[in-house]
Every structure is written in structure tokens, then in C-alpha cells.
Amino acid sequence: MAAALEPSGWWQLWRRRLSARDGSRMLLLLLLLGSGQGPRQVRAGQTFEYLKREHSLSKPYQGVGTSSSSLWNLMGNAMVMTQYIRLTPDMQSKQGALWNRVVRIFLPPVWLTQKPCFLRDWELQVHFKIHGQGKKNLHGDGLAIWYTKDRMQPGPVFGNMDKFVGLGVFVDTYPNEEKQQERVFPYISAMVNNGSLSYDHERDGRPTELGGCTAIVRNLHYDTFLVIRYVKRHLTIMMDIDGKHEWRDCIEVPGVRLPRGYYFGTSSITGDLSDNHDVISLKLFELTVERTPEEEKLHRDVFLPSVDNMKLPEMTAPLPPLSGLALFLIVFFSLVFSVFAIVIGLILYNKWQDQSRKRFY
Predict the structure, then answer these.
(1) Domain count along the chain
(2) pLDDT at position 7, please?
(3) Which of 36, 42, 92, 95 could form a disulfide with 159 if both were Cys (CB 3.0 to 4.6 A apart)?
(4) What is the pLDDT of residue 30?
(5) Which H or E run contains 229?
(6) 4 falls within a domain
(7) pLDDT band at 242 (very low <50, low <70, confident <90, very high)
(8) Cis peptide upstream of residue 156 (ω within 30 degrees of 0)
(9) Could you tell me if residue 220 is inside a domain?
């Protein structure tokens, strides 16, 4: 039976199987598994490992489409262009999205199931562009970057479903709150949801946001970037929107607990106001981080997203899947109980019939 491995296990498996002399096969493996660049230092104690191509997007966008081998799926009005993927055009009442997906790739002698992202520590770099004909405060609505349990679910939150489960990072270009004074838009904010919260459009998401910052990103003549970094339950969002090729801090939140096995995506929506919302690239990196034994216990996998020191409405965590033996025992004892109940019922019914006949005679 074909083996199915998580993406994080591919490299370890094939590194043992391939020798250094097998250069051509190693090159093919690197291209398929996304090990497109070597490590490079970012901070003390942290290094980039390899670019995870199965969860990344770049020109010429060959992995985008509807075929069974596509790594990314389009939704709504999103379309593939030569230099970018346009989520929405500068037209009213449009919405579009782009989502990473699950595919299976055959690397002899096994089939590898490419699942959602199972990395513990990661960094997503987003190269995007927002532009249009609208003047000040006459454009909208913005775009969102997602790391969520569900994918391809259209809805009102920048083109995605409300009450999502996971992380949403919003580049909001239009202030809906009329008495907005202390904030300058466009504005970047983040939200963690366990499926119980609604995004408040009238207040620009303020009741549920983790933090935010102003980001003047419209109609710029140079590249604009956003980076989302998740390391040791620490969420950091930075931006490079000044054309200086330097990251600038925007949001930093400790104690963010995100499950593994979620999907990356990006979406956008327009209403009465509009803009072109373009995604040029999404690049996911796995970060290598050393953990002490105490940190290993602290950083165990979670089933529902949460934030320390932030009260989210209670949701029931899903039960872990049953093993084959447990499932067999449940079915077996259920059948035994059913047969026992039927036998007892028949005995009681026969006794009742005997008593009825005696009373009749």
C-alpha cells in the first residue's frame, strides 16, 4: 500500500535514501520538494531552512489552476495574469481568492501526499500590489492573507467566510467607521479566531484585532511586501512598503497558539468602491528553532487557535481520531448490546403474550 507522508517528513526520508553521488536525482528532488535555496541567517538562533515550494507561489504561476496536480486553486473573479494574480479588478462587487491545496506526487517508489502546512515555525513573505483609479477614501476594500482550517469558502470577510478558524491578516484600505480619527488608512491588522467570532465590518474589525499599524500601500511605484512570522507561539508581522528594502515592525503578539495542518490563502473583495488587488508572490519558509525540553512540553500541538491573555468564547475541541482497534471494539460491543436488547425484548414479549392468553381463558 502506498505510503503517505507529511511534507515535513519528505526531506528526512529522501536524505537517507539518496547518496551525495546521485547528483541528478538529488536536483530533481530539490525542485519537487521546494528546497530551492540554502539556509540564510535572519536572527540569532534562527535560520531559514528551505523555501517550501509546495506552499509557495511565484511566476510563471504554472501550479495555479483547477487540475488535479495544481498546487493553488482560484476562486471567484480571481485570474492569472503574466506578472501577477489579480484577486479582484478595479470594478464594483467583485471578489476572488487563491488557496493552497492538497495534491499527491509520485516519487518512486512511493506516493507522497502533500498535505496542508504542518510546519511548527514558519515565515510567509507576501509580495502584493493595490492600485486603482479611486481617489482618497473612494477605493476599497482591501485584501487578506489567511492561515485557516477551511479553504475555498467565499464570504464577507475580504472575500472569505466569517467565523473562520485560524489566522487572518487584513490590509484594509477603506475606513467604515465614520468617527475614525486616530487611525490612518490603509491599515494592517490581525485576528485569531476559533470559529466563534464575527468580523465587525462597521468598526473595521477593532473589537477582535490583535494589533495593527498604518500602511500606505496604494498606487506606489515600487514593490510592497508583508511578512508573517510564527515562531515559538510568537506572531510577528512586518512590512516593506517604503522602497527601502527593510522590514518595519507592525504587529508583535506572544502566546499565539495555531494548530498545524491548516491552509494558506489570500482573498479580496470590492463593493461600491473598488481597486485592483494583485498578488505577485507568496513564499513560505520553514524556520529552524531550537527548543529546550521545557519548551517542547509548552509548545505541544493544539486543536483550536487561541491567544494567551485574550479570552475567546469557548468552543469544543475536536476529539482525536479513533484508532482502528478502538473503532472495531465500539462497533463490536454495539452489535452485542443490540442483539442482547433484542433477545430480552423477545423474552418479555412472549411472557406478556402468555399472561394475556391465561387471562382470556
Answers:
(1) 1
(2) 38
(3) 95
(4) 36
(5) strand 224-231
(6) no
(7) very high
(8) no
(9) yes
Three-state SS across 91-116? CCCCEEEEEECCEEEEECCEEEEECC
Residue 180 inside a domain? The answer is: yes
Give the pLDDT score at 15: 36
The pLDDT score that the predictor gives to residue 340 is 80
- What's phi and psi for 304, nearest 5 deg? -130, 140
**Contact indicator for 128, 226 with CB cutoff of 8 Å:** yes
Residue 204, by phi and psi: left (phi above 0), alpha (psi -120 to 50) or beta? left
Assess contact for 272 and 263: CB atoms under 8 A.
no
In a domain, 317, yes or no: no
Q: Give the Cβ contact number of residue 70 at 10 Å.
A: 14
Residue 189 scores a pLDDT above 70? yes
Q: Which residue type sits at 136? A: K
End-to-end Cα distance, the chain: 69
d(CA 146, CA 264): 5
Q: How many CB atoms lie within 10 A of CB 312?
A: 16
> Which H/E stretch holds residue 249?
strand 248-253
Phi-psi region of 183 (alpha: psi -120 to 50; beta: other; left: phi over 0): beta
What is the C-alpha to C-alpha distance for residues 103 and 114, in angstroms, rounded to an integer? 5
Concatenating the DSSP letter of every residue in 122-157 gives EEEEEEEEEE-S--TT----EEEEEEES--S---SB
For cell 464575527, the residue is 198
The per-residue pLDDT for 37 is 44
Instruction: Compute how many other C-beta atoms are within 10 angstroms of the C-beta atom of residue 48.
Output: 16
Q: Are 260 and 120 in contact (CB under 8 A)?
A: yes
Whether this model's pTM surpasses 0.70:
yes
CATH number of the domain encompassing residue 290: 2.60.120.200
Q: Which of 70, 89, 95, 72 is nearest to 154 (CA)?
A: 95
Which residue type occupies 347?
A: I
| Distance from C-alpha of 266 to C-alpha of 97, rounded to nearest angstrom | 6
| Range of lowest pLDDT (12-26, 44-58, 172-186, 267-281) | 12-26
Write out the residue range of the structural domain in which residue 178 sits: 48-307
Q: Which residues contact 229 (CB under 8 A, 6 or more apart)?
A: 122, 123, 124, 235, 236, 237, 238, 287
Least confident span in 53-67, 100-114, 168-182, 296-310: 100-114
Task: Count the residues in the chain.
Answer: 361
Reported as a pLDDT band with limits 50, 70 and 90, residue 157 is very high
